[in-house]
Amino acid sequence: MSKFDETIIEDGRPIPADASQKPCLTVLYGGPVGLVYTLPVGSETLIGRGDEADLPLGEARVSRSHAVVRVNPDNTVVIEDQGSSNGTFVNGTKIDKRQLEDGDRVQIGYSCIIKFSYQDALEYQLQHEIAGGVKDPLTGLYTKMYFDDRLASEFTHACRRKDNLGVLLVAIDHFDKVNLCHGQEAGEVVVKEVARAVNSVLRAGDVFACYDAVRFALLARDLDEKGSAILRQRIHKVVQGTQCDFNGTPISLAVSVGIATLADQPEDAGHLIKLADASLRQSTLEGNQGGADGSTTKTHVSSDEAVTTVYYVPAQKA
């Protein structure tokens, strides 16, 4: 008999129970899916679409200040609608104010579902490990895994309703030179600064993610070819107008942006990404060899002790 077939006999002591039950909200649909929000005793958590929300849900049908969740001193939890446009529901029933019970499902507007639960330490740890695949630890943006899942569902939804849907891929230009000249830590500073700059020009409902080491991905509803082109210009402008500082050395930034929309007639969500990637490669090529209008453009990288600058220099016309 193999040792793997033997049963290990212990003294039968149970795993100690954790008496502390933490009230938590877990986003199931329509927001940062999988994320767990702990509700401390005595706290008030604002759910909404506005910047002041403690639990932000970037959906158009969610009011800016939609609902408040309060934890009483005895650890009971109450949710109260804040006069929202589309209502707050608990287990399918519209409410103004209600005490939550373990396992209740809260619907915010028409498109966001949150589960309320009391979790012990083991459950809490497991949920956070699962949620770890949703957000990138460096930038706080969504991960590629989450982005791909959302893209698949949004693609199906947009095709069925014949809505617009756009995907943009944003690549940091000459990122390898930043790492080479200043090291990995400087590269991380650049990634965070580009993420912050791009995020500042996006809408609340856009899904912005770290797609790989040097590329970001953006998923935007109701974005056609014209809107995508305008957004690309905004991204270029805000990034190229940003300069981050690393140990006293300013580093100017630039990006290339690829665009794909449903107007490109993709076969599926994966094909939409491939079209955006092809557009990104073309954008990078135009940055190095020539613009779309036929004018020649060179990519110039200047690096000295005082400043590292990445910028485009149009060639002189004859």
Structure characterization notes:
The chain is α+β, with helices and mostly antiparallel strands. It has two domains: 22-126, Tumour Suppressor Smad4; 134-287, Reverse transcriptase/Diguanylate cyclase domain (Alpha-Beta Plaits), CATH 3.30.70. Helices cover 28% and strands 31% of the residues. It contains six helices and 19 strands. It has helices at 121-131, 144-161, 175-182, 184-199, 225-240, 269-289, and strands spanning 22-29, 36-38, 44-48, 55-56, 67-71, 77-81, 88-90, 93-95, 97-100, 105-108, 112-119, 165-172, 207-210, 215-221, 243-246, 249-252, 255-261, 297-303, 308-314. The strands form five sheets. The chain has a six-stranded antiparallel beta sheet with strand order 2-1-11-10-7-8. It has a five-stranded mixed beta sheet with strand order 4-3-5-6-9, with no helix packed on it. Strand 18 (297-303) and strand 19 form a beta hairpin. Mean pLDDT is 81; it is low at 14-19 and 288-318.
Mean pLDDT: 81
For the sheet with most strands, the description reads: 6 strands, antiparallel
Which class of secondary structure composition applies to the elements?
Answer: alpha+beta
Tell me the total number of β-strands: 19
Tally of contiguous helical segments: 6
Predict the CATH topology of the largest domain: Alpha-Beta Plaits
Radius of gyration: 24 Å
Query: What is the overall shape?
Result: globular
N-to-C order of helices and strands: EEEEEEEEEEEHHEHHEEHEEEHEE
The CATH homologous superfamily of the largest domain is called Reverse transcriptase/Diguanylate cyclase domain
The CATH C-level class name of the largest domain = Alpha Beta
> Low-confidence parts, pLDDT < 50 over ≥5 residues?
14-19, 288-318
Strand content: 25-35%
Q: Largest beta sheet: what is the strand line-up?
A: 2-1-11-10-7-8
